[in-house]
Amino acid sequence: MTTEAREFCPNCGDPIEVDPAERTPLPEAAGKRGKEQKLCDSCYFDRFDLVDAPDRIEVLVCSQCGAVHRGKRWVDVDARDYTDVAIEEVSEALGVHLDAYDVSWQVDPEQVDQNTIRMHCHFSGIVRETFVEEEVVVPVKISRQTCTRCGRIAGDYYASTVQIRAEERTPTSEEIERAEEIAHEIVAEMEETGDRNAFVTEVGETDDGVNIKVSTTNIGKKISAKVVEEFGGSFSDAETLVTEDEDGEEVYRVTYAVRLPPYSPGEIIDPKDDDGPVLVRSVRGNLKGTRLTTGEDYEATFEEGDAPEARRLGDLDDAETTTLVAVEDERAVQVLDPETYRTETIARPDYMDPDADEVPVLKSRAGLHVVPDERGDGEDG
Fold first, then answer.
1. What is the pTM of this model?
2. Per-residue model confidence (pLDDT) at position 99
3. What is the DSSP string of 16-61?
4. Cβ distance 174 to 131 under 8 Å?
5. Are strands 250-260 and 160-166 parallel, antiparallel or unpaired?
């Protein structure tokens, strides 16, 4: 007894042999694919398309940075040419028939000109136990525009300014250079996370410091916090209303005022405690340093913080090398005054090498003092 059932092709009317055990009821409103499933093989393949492909694809590329526009945003791509980008765009735009399985495809890009790539796509797969092949050609047009980020950079856009200043002095060249490095490091870190709104707009040195304009208020705050972390001091912020956006929302720019401490590592100061000059080592938190008379550690009180009352005597870079004449005892040595060439008896600090032939000294209003061979490294001592 046969178990086969007979149906008829809705297109040509020819009978279709169907095994009831393999029949799958079609859901209501099965749509086009449901109707296709009822066709005989001949009619099915007459109207069958393995691949659904667009007539052409346009890829928007930033002419400045090379970013690609996808959806509603610009995406950075690491590509010298846009063949890989074109392949990716085509692969996302192509659709393969749902009835096909064991599908494979390959693409052969043809560079027509600088702005056009013709993609020859070859597909193969199995449909109704039949091997099928299809080839489609999709032209990809590369169109160049300016992305939002590059447009803002070209227009000198900025949302915040970091002003680096110092109390009672001008920031050193090392402090200014490091502040600029910090700004670019923070921007680079944010770019690595995919933030395309991160950039340094302008760095401008002034008579009393440096101004760094950046693209967002968050970057300005990060720079200020990092500068204070490394050099000490503090910062404050102030908003200024500049305009309204297209939605009527107020747009503000923020100025971050960074104030570095009055003294910097490497400076030599004379606190008013009658114990002798101090080489400043750190100004993070309380000022810390080294006594030039003894070599002992110095730390300002909590109340004094990073700005103890003192007078400036000079800088470690101002030191001169002179002859060590003799070591008198544990507390005193004789050296030649680098200006008068007379022998002077001065304090012997612990850091001085008693076997040295020459030692660095600083001559100031506080007298002549042996200083360390190396500049203060700014570490908390």
1. 0.69
2. 72
3. EEE-GGG--PPPTT-HHHHHHHHS-HHHHHHS--SEE--S-EEEEE
4. no
5. parallel
